[in-house]
């Protein structure tokens, strides 16, 4: 355990604690017994760190305590402002009336000395500046330390080799399209089945309600993988039918699972439409179904849009389960391609990186689109 | 003599164990403007909502335009096209423009063409003074404007009867006048209206008849100016005095007119200790004793 190595291990804590040490010299810091004991405990735990004792708690305590309370170089300057400010305040104070009159209530109430907490000698704006400095300083310190700790050469070798990418390249776009195909196929099934289930759950017929509840509880309780297995192998075996394409199998399996979640979201959305809307529509002579179609569901749609977007994004990632069905190369979706390319001799991780980027290409624009739509609704709702 | 537009006989409505309407008889003729006033909890809104069957009566009969709507075979949607309702919280459709709000029911229920629906809508918007806001969304309008759009929406179905459920209670006081002006014009054009309101000036000046309700019963009924100017029953007198002179309440009278429930102790500030017996019932103008002096029945018919 050389000094140099110790310094390296402790470097993050040294960085973030620097301003904490400086702040400690401010009047009012570590004033309470709680702060003092916490600092002492943190110090003990940290000292044990290089010896492998209490590693995990050490990280936790140090992170929780030092990062908010400490900071780095930037916060030192702001902390200095605080120190000089408080020194000035102290100097000004000694010019005033004796301490007994600190409460400012005058002679008659001079026995009412309201004790001022020592930490109040910092002006509020200085205190805020010090805290902000500490927050940004901690952030910068962590980023810098991580950047120094990361082995950039190794990473570039593993994640960014064009060679490895070259092997997977011709398949990335077709498999991207496959992923989209499976996702939107499943989404179609999920939305329609989910809407039907939601309406069943809200219906007047107790049998429909029971059926819908049973379906939802069943499919919410099973892992999607099991359902994919069931649809791919179980159902053709049991019903002696052949489901022609993988896309259809994926749509059925993933759609059935997702429909259970979608049904609950849609039902909540429909019930969230104010009762007054239904009363107004019925008072105008609109039938129950016309009310549902023209007044309730358009409004429920706006309410339900965030959870539905969530579902699409989850479905996109669930398509990675399709591989259990046994896919030909032309039916691969992105995750299966990534898995295959991982075993490449040179920098297989590159493909993983590229494929993750592909997933983000699907999910990020979706999120952006939905935010735009919600803002459009917001204009109407004002 | 035209048949009455609304005929209510022996109407009773209970929500679970609580009987809100305890036998209502009411007749509204063509062109009548009937204002229903009374303390909260008296059943005014429930009565109004029973008339167009937003609430299902527990007993009694309601005849609207000659049709018995309490008959289970009746096509209530058809009947409701002849009855317009205006709500306290406006209930405009937020996902449609003002024009969309007015034409939605016309197109889907009355099957009018787009052009015809727009014409009717613009005519009604002109009546309420909002034809320049036809393309605005409800959220962009003030409360008074929204309520006027709601009135125009109800009028676009060409109803024979208009029901108003405390139309100005949710409005900024300055905007109340706009809505009342629209309602006054409507009354003067001969529309049959039932208005549940707290605006006594409107009831006295525009109403033909005023009905005073308390605890599920009609306590008093009479010509507007007569009832509001000099009510016959003690309860109506106390109510009107409290509404028209709200700062006149003495400390000893605090809580005297709170709606009572069985088992409620005496509410007055002075008599806070102990149960001094059931609260006094107000005697009725027509002397019908039993319903007025009995306790609120707990059985459901």
Topology:
The complex is a heterodimer of chains A (382) and B (301).
Chain A: H1 3-24, H2 33-48, H3 55-69, H4 73-94, H5 124-149, H6 152-159, H7 162-201, H8 206-221, H9 224-239, H10 246-272, H11 275-283, H12 288-318, H13 334-342, H14 349-381
Helix pairs in contact in A: 1-3, 1-4, 1-5, 2-3, 4-5, 7-8, 7-10, 7-12, 7-13, 7-14, 8-10, 9-10, 10-12, 11-12, 12-14, 13-14
Chain B: E1 6-15, E2 18-28, E3 33-37, H1 44-51, E4 59-64, E5 67-68, H2 76-80, E6 83-86, H3 98-108, H4 114-128, H5 143-155, E7 161-165, H6 173-188, E8 192-196, H7 200-206, E9 209-214, E10 217-223, H8 224-229, H9 234-244, H10 289-293
Parallel strand pairs in B: 3-8, 3-9, 6-7, 7-8
Antiparallel strand pairs in B: 1-2, 1-4, 4-5, 9-10
Could you please describe the fold and organization of this structure?
The complex is a heterodimer of chains A (382) and B (301). By secondary structure, chain A is mainly alpha-helical. In chain A, 76% of the residues lie in helices and 0% in strands. The longest helix of chain A is centred in the middle third of the chain and has 40 residues. Chain A is flat and about 80 Å long. Chain B is an alpha/beta fold and 301 residues long. A six-stranded mixed β-sheet of chain B has the order 6-7-8-3-9-10, sandwiched between helices. Chain B has a four-stranded antiparallel β-sheet with strand order 2-1-4-5, with helices on one face. In chain B, helix 3 packs across helix 4, helix 4 crosses helix 5 and helix 5 runs parallel beside helix 6. Chain B is globular and about 60 Å long. The C terminus of chain B is likely disordered. The chains are: A mainly alpha (382), B alpha/beta (301). The interface between A and B is medium-sized, with 22 and 28 residues.
